[in-house]
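thread: overnight batch results

M.L. [08:02]
morning all. the overnight job finished for the chain we discussed friday. pasting input first so we're all looking at the same thing
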Amino acid sequence: MTTILIDGDACPVKDEAIRVAERHQLPVLIVANSWHRIDHYLVSQIVAAVGADTADDIIAEKAEPGDVVVTNDIPLAARCLEKGAKPIDPRGRPFEEANIGMQLAMRELMKGLRETGEITGGPSGFTKQDRSRFLDGLEKMVQAAKRGR
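M.L. [08:03]
and the structure it wrote out:
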């Protein structure tokens, strides 16, 4: 059965993911470094130990083929793709085998530019359109996962 795994720290679309899970009666696992006040019959949580990538390690370990992983973390998305899971970011963009290498390279480039002061800003603010794109993207991804694609 498909499970929706959520990289819970700083994820702005937990409620939307739960709505999609409820529509399809899919279990949701939220993994984060702190407890989230979510009381829903489909949701379980794991609080990861404090430390870099501890939540990511748990998600990567638990992800199985056909699961959907909600994350903004490109290296975590790459690890989940390797296991056959389907990662998607909170703006509704799926991570795919065809583009994950380029995304990892771009991430490193942007990190270097930030470290040298060439770029000082972060990503644009999260909008209603982003939320809507996420709902649409997650719905399509869940349907594809349930069909076994």
